[in-house]
Task: inverse folding
């Protein structure tokens, strides 16, 4: 397969997400996968933009700290609506609450990416934050119940997957589709280029 970019450094994806693996693979770069285990709790009064940027940076840096010969890509995605940050649903009641909040409304999907590498004991960081707007149709109680039973909402920020069955609730998006899924491809390329991992 013809490569779009020349790769100069080994790359690691600091994520367990199969969606991010699939998206990063679309760039044609070689990478390993080492999920980062960090506390993803939202800090008191933390803004959504700051939250995803901090978590993406922590994911990248915690892996970079023990792999100084590699460049680490961390990413985090959150849903923001009415001043609230929606993470992954903890149970059915939490999921139902989130879906009722999203139903018939527009919300922001904020995804941060961070490329980190440890060079001579100094952490070098390149990062970007992408915000997209997603508009939902009105979702009925029956649809919410049935969607929960599919199992798809588990592990998804905001309780839905736009690339899966959850896509049927979306009437409009403004921004990066791949960013909504979990890894904004255009901005990831720019960060990898700026960090010197791949050719410009």
Result:
């Amino acid at each position: 397969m013809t490569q779009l970019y020349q790769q100069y450094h080994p790359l690691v994806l600091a994520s367990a997400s199969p969606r991010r693996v699939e998206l990063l693979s679309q760039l044609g770069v070689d990478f390993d996968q080492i999920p980062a285990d960090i506390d993803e709790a939202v800090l008191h009064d933390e803004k959504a933009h700051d939250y995803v940027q901090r978590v993406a940076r922590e994911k990248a840096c915690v892996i970079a700290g023990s792999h100084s010969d590699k460049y680490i890509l961390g990413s985090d995605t959150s849903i923001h609506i009415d001043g609230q940050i929606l993470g992954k649903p903890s149970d059915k009641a939490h999921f139902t609450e989130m879906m009722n909040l999203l139903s018939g409304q527009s919300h922001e999907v904020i995804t941060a990416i961070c490329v980190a590498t440890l060079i001579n004991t100094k952490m070098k960081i390149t990062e970007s934050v992408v915000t997209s707007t997603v508009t939902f149709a009105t979702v009925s109680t029956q649809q919410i119940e049935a969607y929960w039973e599919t199992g798809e909402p588990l592990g998804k920020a905001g309780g839905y997957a736009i690339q899966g069955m959850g896509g049927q609730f979306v009437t409009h998006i403004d921004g990066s589709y791949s960013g909504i899924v979990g890894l904004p491809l255009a901005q990831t390329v720019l960060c990898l280029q700026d960090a010197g991992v791949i050719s410009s």
